[in-house]
Design goal:
By secondary structure, the chain is α/β, with parallel strands linked by helices. The mean pLDDT is 96. It binds NADP nicotinamide-adenine-dinucleotide phosphate.
Length: 340
């Protein structure tokens, strides 16, 4: 009988996730009922935000808490291989919020975004630059921050999936882009591969504030924040009048055992007449096609270069997720499951 391998949540991570929190199990390949279709997943996307729903009692309006022993929820890119659903036929390609599995059953009601049958880009781009992370960079900058030429745009987790695209989009707007990343090697890559004007190492500790001031001599007009935590407080002390702070994520807090202290200096927002704006990209799914068309144009013109951190095979999915929290990735983290 055909089998399906899935990665289950074997233990709830304590703090940062560890490979032992995940286990690969093999079960019979699922069958579909009326109104359902079976997807063969070509790629699994690893997204730091899903760490939130691995905690006991963490369910919220976005997702339920993940169940122990059940396949880990995540974003996938799959191809319909069997269908009893009127709107999906074999060969259709979709990005969906399903689970870390080789095969998944869907009914079209999950968060799902269709791809063209003949995509103009490599399939994995639909989980990265054309997926939730690239689109977070796109919407966060084009709709919320709206950087102007000459402004300074600061981005945290600047070499990651969201940050690597955000830096390149902000540069396209003529902004000075400054990236925050962990370690000198990653900081050097921000400048040499992603075109950041400057980079600051968040591991500098007490010297971080001075290094940030040096990298942003004209102050900070936009902070695109993927990290939250202590960095935010330091950044708030260096914002300009009218600054826009875009809250995309807070990876520093996802694995925290205790709630992290909030910034003590929110009064900076008052005196600088600045705004702080959080957003969820998937609520804009009706505009994904238009945004993707623009991003594809920018890629074709060489203005955006997608970078991937890619591992192979279902056995490496848990490890790839842990790599995000250890900062081992540069660019979008995906695991390839098939030859497609
Ligand atoms: N709002 C939305 O709809 C939406 C959608 C997608 C993603 N997001 C958010 O976007 C952010 C980036 O997510 P991603 O999945 O694309 O991950 P990613 O940026 O590819 O990887 C995470 C990066 O975060 C950095 N990091 C990890 N722990 C850190 C810490 N304690 N302090 C500082 N930096 C740390 C690491 O880089 P360094 O080596 O530089 O430390 C790591 O490479 C996440 O917060 C995620 O939740 C939001």
């Amino acid at each position: 009988m055909s089998r399906n391998r899935s990665v289950i949540l074997a233990a709830r991570p304590r703090g940062q996730p560890a490979p032992g929190d995940f286990r690969v199990v093999s079960t019979p390949r699922p069958t579909i009922a009326d109104g359902e279709f079976l997807l063969r997943n070509h790629y699994i996307s690893l997204d730091a935000g899903f760490r939130n729903w691995m905690n006991e009692g963490s369910g919220d309006s976005v997702l339920p808490a993940m169940a122990l022993g059940a396949p880990v929820m995540g974003l996938t890119l799959g191809e319909v291989v069997e269908s009893r659903h009127a709107d999906y036929v074999p060969g259709n390609l979709v990005m969906a919020r399903l689970a870390w599995q080789e095969y998944s059953v869907a009914n079209g009601h999950d968060f799902i975004s269709r791809l063209p049958d003949q995509p103009p880009c490599p399939l994995s781009y639909y989980l990265g630059v054309l997926g939730d992370t690239g689109l977070s960079a796109y919407f966060g900058l084009t709709e919320i921050a709206q950087p102007r030429a000459g402004e300074t745009v600061l981005i945290s987790a600047a070499g990651g999936a969201v940050g690597s695209i955000a830096g390149q989009i902000a540069k396209r707007f003529g902004a000075h882009t400054v990236g925050i990343a962990g370690g000198p090697e990653k900081c050097a890559r921000l400048v040499s591969e992603l075109g950041y004007t400057a980079a600051v190492d968040h591991r500098l500790g007490s010297e971080f504030a001075a290094a940030l001031r040096k990298a942003c001599p004209n102050g900070i007009d936009v902070y695109f924040d993927n990290v939250g935590g202590a960095l935010l407080e330091v950044v708030l002390n260096q914002i300009n009048a009218g600054a826009r702070i875009v809250l995309c994520g807070a990876v520093a807090s996802y694995g925290a055992q205790q709630p992290l202290p909030g910034p003590s200096n929110l009064f900076q927002l008052v005196t600088k007449q600045a705004t702080m704006h959080g957003f969820l990209t998937h609520t804009r799914v009706d505009r994904y096609d238009a945004a993707r068309a623009t991003l594809v144009e920018w890629i074709e013109r060489g203005e955006i270069v997608p970078i991937e951190y890619r591992l192979d095979g279902i056995d490496n999915v848990g490890r790839a997720f842990c790599d995000l929290f250890a900062g081992r990735n540069f660019g979008k983290t995906v695991v390839k499951l098939t030859d497609r």
